[in-house]
Amino acid sequence: MTTLSPHSDGRTGGRILVDNLLAQGCDRIFTVPGESFLAVLDALHDSPEIDLTVCRQEGGVAFMACADGALTGRPGVAFVTRGPGATNASIGVHVAMQDSQPMILFIGDVDRATRDREAFQEIDFPAMFGPIAKWAAKIDDAQRIPEYVARAWTVAMSGRPGPVVLALPEDMLLDVVETVDRPRVMPAVQACDPFQLHALGEMLEAAERPLAIIGGAGWNKRAADSFGMWAERSGLAVASAFRRQDALPNTSPVWAGNLGYGPNPALVQRVRDADLLLVVGPRLGEATTDGYTLITPDHPGQRLVHVHPDPNELGQTYRTDLAICADMGSFADALHSIASRPREDSGAHDDYLAWSTPAPRDGVALDLGPCVAEMRARLPADSIICNGAGNYSGWWHRYWRYAGPGTQLAPTAGAMGYGVPAATAAALRHPGRTVVALAGDGCFLMNGQELATAVSHGVDMLVLIIDNAGYGTIRMHQEREFPGRVSGTALQNPDFAALARAHGCWAETVETTQAFAPALERAMTEPGVRLLHLKTDMKVITAGATLST
User: Fold this and answer.
1) How far, in Å, CA of 425 to CA of 464, rounded?
2) Which of 35, 241, 248, 544 is buried most, with the most CB atoms less than 10 Å from its CB?
3) Does the model's pTM come out above 0.85?
């Protein structure tokens, strides 16, 4: 490779990469800096169009990028260094894959000349990330950076969206070459086949108890608006897949609630009784189907119409009576051409309203149900609710009413530590909206260091830590499988309010239901990052059960 003067017409690989990120519309990068991509950091010094969000751990970096991609529909962008940086970031790649969210992870890599010697922090990244990414590759030639970047954006957004991983050899980023940048790419989308649409119309006309399950890959506001209008006109009850509760405004008269962990028994029965399931977007994974038992792969006695943007997903697990490969928005628009007979009110929305209205629980010092109801009354309807994994999230899954696409960030992969990074990304992306991070005590301490990132970037968000002094979900399973034999699930926690104040946040501790509303009121009058440390009882393990019942 001929090395040219920095003042020649050529550009370094780092400069070419940043120029092509700009060409694809990238306006934010999440990173923990590494010496393996100093040439990129140098190029970013002269690129104020890109907000460089510096984080404290690569897991937080990848979660933020995943959440940003979920909110924008274009890939969230992360940069980490080789070895430890990449392994830390792998959790976010896995979440982006299982959540079907567009994301691109760039990894600084060892010099090309030292490859395959187990050099310092060397890993074969295409081999490592290949099973958990849509595409994983290494850029060895700086002249091909525009090609790789454009392909990465295309792969991340097309079909079933997901993560792409590109390794960047350190010396390649320093090469000075001449190359031509690629223009902004748009995802390739497929319209609904008119013959399949006609077949769907006939199946809906013949069905007596149809039910729709929506959300998932490629679902967006266009799909929600158009599908919701059609469903309301036809009277078709609509449920969501696991942690896709913002797929349709929960105020819609056809909204039936969500599937997943701890669903409404009335909705579960409605799924069992349905003679036709119209599944638009979801993969029908393990959580949505209760371990493939609520809807079995062969679903005897039911007809299944599966609509998905990726042909590889259709028919992979489920016997499908009608498989439609189509973009979600295009399919939802096409539905309006179906002459569907209006159906009588099934009562699904009334069932949902009853299920999502909390009733006080006797003998509970801090009852989360009324706390969620207080938040519903106090916070804007379009608040963005972000959570990781844990039983604590079930109170919000059951009692919060989501306002439509872009109001729920929650990993379907069940990864802990997602809430605070996701909320930070959401607050940066939508500075005028209310953003709430939810975290259990175990969940919070997996990425609580990103409070420092939120404060340093001046974001405005509310953090709730639900502290029951243990890994509650595991304790629940433990009590079921090995009752009375507690092992490895108790936690000794810090004073979370004091920890938050040490980061520069406003914080209070709440120990009773009655104290929550005034504490929330005070929090919402404060600027910046506010944190409420909610001390709860491990015995009250879910929104509907205790450890002993």
Assistant:
1) 17
2) 248
3) yes
